[in-house]
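[step 3/7] fold_predict: job queued, chain A
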Amino acid sequence: MDKVISELGRLAKEFADVPMLSRTHGQTASPTTMGKEMAVFAYRLQRQRNQLAAVPYLGKMAGAVGNYNAHMSAYPEVDWQAVAQEFVPSLGLEFNPYVTQIEPHDYIAELYSAIIRFNNILIDFDRDVWGYISLGYFRQKTIAGEVGSSTMPHKVNPIDFENSEGNLGLANALMDHLINKLPISRWQRDLTDSTVLRNLGVGIGHALLAYASTLKGISKLQIDTARLATDLDNSWEVLAEPIQTVMRRYGVPEPYEKLKAFTRGQRVTQESMMTFVDGIEGLPEPAKEQLKKLTPANYIGNAAEQATSLHHYLG
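[step 4/7] structure written:
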């Protein structure tokens, strides 16, 4: 987990100021930077990693049904609750004062819940990078002897991210059963948890395979800034947002409606956008000049700063 987060932090820093067209609902949206999008995933994963590390491991020594019955029969003068409360932590466990024949396993459910949340975020990352590769924003380093397709020799498929996604899904399915099963035991105990506990490591194993695959995929990524720039230059319509916002600031009537009529379903170019800005009645000339300095590549807000400040939040 830490290695994945570290690698995403590296990508955030490396691509901090590489502008990229956003996509919401699959459609062009206000630009961002590739580094900032990597920072989003690094921060999300770090939160789940921290929550995972904070889950306590609980233990008990309260006897067959949790009441120290046999202990007190043998040595009634001993304060067994106090002994247990001192002994269990000496093993590196947190003492659970209320148990039955078993420690109820709630902490195991908490543990796997945190891992599943981490995994779900990583699935989100795998799919996004898969999409960026499909768009041509990332190229993949070719590996000698690696086959992309049995019939199409030109292909370099994003197999590492696909492998990761598949293993994460399997890991989550297994761990979800553990989460739902282990806290439930009839009365003071039944044995339905026994076979399940023997498989505690299976989901973890698939998760580890997934993390390794994601890291392998990341190691092959090469950003294509030219392709990113081309997409940005073909998407001048994204500047409708700042233009209508500035129009609103200066009290120009119906700014949203005017930009909607100008851009929606239309082919917008740099020239047509500049002409539109020049023709806005009631907008001060300094504001027009400021808007005309905007391009899809520099309209990125504070995305670059967010990417470079990630280290303050990762610790």
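[step 5/7] annotate
The radius of gyration is 28 Å.
The longest helix spans residues 106-135.
exit 0
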